[in-house]
Amino acid sequence: MNKQLGIVAFCGAMLVSSPFAMAQAYRPGPPPPQSQSNRYHGMYDQGKHEGWYKRGGYIPPTYRGSRYVVSSRDWQRYRLKPPPRGYQYIRSDNGDFLLAAITTGAIMSIIAANH
Question: In Å, how far are 5, 10, 37, 91 from 113, measured between CA atoms?
């Protein structure tokens, strides 16, 4: 009787544990999307930032420095109208002139350069 009870218990344990034995081995999946999005960040940046501006958009703070701001004698030389009070001309990477607010950097108009 004890022998039969032992065999039944053993068979029951085998039946219960068989699904665990058939489970697939753990394989790590692909990396999370966060790590892939920054994978090539800046890798193909060639320094060409033309076309980042549009009317109603904003100029990044780096373009508001003296390097890109057109002075009063320069806008006269380029035959541009004087900017309204609170606005200034900013020269883009491709030579276009952007009339933008001094305080916010909001672009009021874009004047195409004659290449």
Answer: 95, 87, 36, 9
- Shortest CA distance to 68 belongs to which of 99, 45, 43? 99
Residue for token digits 């309204």? 84
10-18 mean pLDDT? 72
Structure tokens at 44: 């193909």
Alpha helix ranges (H) inside the chain? 2-21, 33-37, 72-77
pTM (two decimals)? 0.53
Fold exhibited by the domain 53-111: Nuclear Transport Factor 2; Chain: A, (3.10.450)
**Position 3 pLDDT exceeds 70:** yes
Q: Return the domain boundaries, the chain.
A: 53-111
Q: For residue 49, is pLDDT > 60?
A: no
